[in-house]
Amino acid sequence: MLRSCTAGLRSIWALRGRREGAPRLSMDLQPARRLFSTEKVIHKDWALPNPSWSKDLKLLFDQFMKKCEDGSWERLPSYKRRSTQESEDFKTYFLDPKLVEEAQLFTRGFEDGLGFEYVIFKNNDEKRTVCLFQGGPYLQGVPGLLHGGAMATMIDIALGSCTGGAVMTANLNINFKRPVPLCSVVVINSQLDKLEGRKLFLSCNVRSVDEKTLYSEATGLFIKLDPEKSST
Ligand SMILES: CCCCCCCC(=O)SCCNC(=O)CCNC(=O)[C@H](O)C(C)(C)COP(=O)(O)OP(=O)(O)OC[C@H]1O[C@@H](n2cnc3c(N)ncnc32)[C@H](O)[C@@H]1OP(=O)(O)O
């Protein structure tokens, strides 16, 4: 699995015109300014295939895109930055104005293939989502395995995608049942179990593509923000 991951990295480097096979695992440390200078990068939808996606991920993506054709499912776009409206909804205030320009969703902060590669599909009628996730080599915990914190991050995002609107995670409870091999693809099935006032109770499971391995199970409590209260 790691071998195919390394091969993937090499092809990414080759695409960028680097010498193939150069043992360079560090990201280009470009000044943040340059990263944020092009509107194109900011407004790019990152929940679409790129050359780092494995065959498994592309295949599942195509299957779900077919399900979207009759309108029962939709692919959720994903951007590096929150819109101004979202920042308003969350009533968050940046102390440093520079941060307004530079802050970005940290799952989208890695170069293609190195971190979180994922796409989420939503079925509004069934109040559930499916997240297809490939964790790259920079998300390593125990050698060869995905870090539990990276898995927790994706679970949080997957559960959050079932909610809609301005919500925050109040509680996340995860049972890690099997380790996830680095660079493998997992499928996170999430659903809204119960809505009680401002409280949304959600659950999910994380499985292998062939559904034979149950990697994790989790529950989460999300709270709809009270418009009268500030988030900071
Ligand atoms: C696409 C991108 C997706 C990104 C997803 C990422 C999501 C995140 O990571 S969010 C960041 C992590 N979370 C946080 O920082 C949240 C920090 N906590 C808070 O800000 C607040 O506690 C917050 C907003 C959750 C709730 O505060 P507030 O709105 O004042 O609600 P509050 O009145 O305390 O509680 C409302 C209800 O929820 C219950 N509740 C609140 N927290 C909990 C909890 N941890 N466990 C159980 N119940 C809880 C309360 O008991 C109350 O219940 P009831 O209505 O029955 O009396």
Automatic annotation (TrEMBL):
Q: Which GO terms describe its molecular function?
A: hydrolase activity
Tell me its EC number(s), please.
3.1.2.2
| All residue ranges annotated as the Thioesterase domain in the record | 144-213
SUPFAM superfamilies xref list: Thioesterase/thiol ester dehydrase-isomerase
Q: Where in the cell is it found?
A: Cell projection, Ruffle membrane; Cytoplasm; Mitochondrion inner membrane; Mitochondrion intermembrane space
**Catalytic reaction equation(s):** tetradecanoyl-CoA + H2O = tetradecanoate + CoA + H(+); octanoyl-CoA + H2O = octanoate + CoA + H(+); dodecanoyl-CoA + H2O = dodecanoate + CoA + H(+); (9Z)-octadecenoyl-CoA + H2O = (9Z)-octadecenoate + CoA + H(+)
Q: What InterPro entries would the database entry show?
A: HotDog_dom_sf (IPR029069), THEM4/THEM5_acyl-CoA_thioest (IPR052365), Thioestr_dom (IPR006683)
* GO term, biological process aspect, one: apoptotic process
Predominant localisation class: membrane
Task: Tell me the keywords, alphabetical order.
Answer: Apoptosis, Cell membrane, Cell projection, Cytoplasm, Fatty acid metabolism, Hydrolase, Lipid metabolism, Membrane, Mitochondrion, Mitochondrion inner membrane, Transit peptide
- State the GO CC annotations: mitochondrial inner membrane; mitochondrial intermembrane space; ruffle membrane
Q: Which domain of life does this protein belong to?
A: Eukaryota
Keyword check for Hydrolase: yes
Per UniProt, what is the membrane topology?
Peripheral membrane protein
Which protein family is named in the record? Belongs to the THEM4/THEM5 thioesterase family.
Name of the protein this chain belongs to: Acyl-coenzyme A thioesterase THEM4
Q: Which organism is it from?
A: Bos taurus
**What taxonomic classification does the UniProt entry list for its organism?**
Eukaryota, Metazoa, Chordata, Craniata, Vertebrata
